[in-house]
């Protein structure tokens, strides 16, 4: 009986470790830090600072959402990353990662890991000024869940 319990404990531990490895492989890691590749990376300094943030799903809600973001009640802080990126959250993850601004060949700008622009984990920068930026997730499912984000500098 003792050997059977020990075997079950070993099997349970092995299954637990394999589950951890699976989750870790699906979660972005710091090893995916921004780096230029076959695309142009842009300076991310314009993103650093405190931002009022809100999101909307329908265009008719955009003006109301901007007013909410302008209140800056709980500013979202975008900090400089260890390289040339910025520290931000990604969809469905409470941890912050270093992300880079990337320019695609078609002229669109994306924010994400060191992958080609337009990666499913990226956000497309819809518009950006020194005082306001609008972003949406490339992944249709994440975009449906989170909507289009408006960031207004506090």
- State the helix count: 3
Largest sheet: 8 strands, antiparallel, barrel
How many DSSP E strands? 9
Percent of sequence in beta strands: 25-35%
Give the structural class. Answer: alpha+beta
Roughly how many Å is the radius of gyration? 20 Å
Mean pLDDT: 80
Task: Describe the protein in words.
The protein has 154 residues and is an alpha+beta fold. It is 27% helix and 32% strand. It contains three helices and nine strands. The chain has helices at 2-26, 62-70, 140-146, and strands spanning 40-42, 49-56, 76-80, 86-89, 96-103, 109-112, 123-128, 132-137, 148-153. It is globular, with a radius of gyration of 20 Å. Mean pLDDT is 80; it is low at 1-36.
Short description:
This protein has 154 residues and is an alpha+beta fold. 27% of the residues lie in helices and 32% in strands. It has an 8-stranded antiparallel β-barrel.
Keywords summarizing the entry:
27% helix; eight-stranded antiparallel beta barrel; 154 residues; alpha+beta; disordered N terminus; 32% strand
């Amino acid at each position: 009986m003792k050997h059977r319990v020990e075997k079950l404990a070993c099997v349970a531990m092995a299954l637990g470790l394999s589950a951890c490895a699976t989750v870790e492989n699906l979660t972005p890691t710091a090893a995916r830090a921004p780096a230029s590749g076959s695309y142009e990376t842009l300076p991310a300094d314009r993103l650093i600072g405190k931002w009022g943030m809100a999101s909307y799903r329908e265009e008719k809600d955009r003006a109301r959402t901007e007013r909410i973001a302008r209140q800056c009640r709980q500013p979202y802080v975008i900090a400089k990353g260890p390289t040339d990126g910025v520290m931000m959250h990604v969809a469905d993850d409470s941890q912050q990662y270093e992300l880079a601004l990337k320019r695609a060949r078609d002229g669109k700008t994306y924010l994400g890991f060191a992958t080609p622009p337009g990666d499913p984990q990226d956000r497309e920068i819809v518009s950006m000024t020194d005082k306001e930026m609008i972003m949406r997730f490339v992944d249709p499912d994440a975009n449906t869940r989170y909507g289009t984000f408006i960031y207004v500098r506090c």
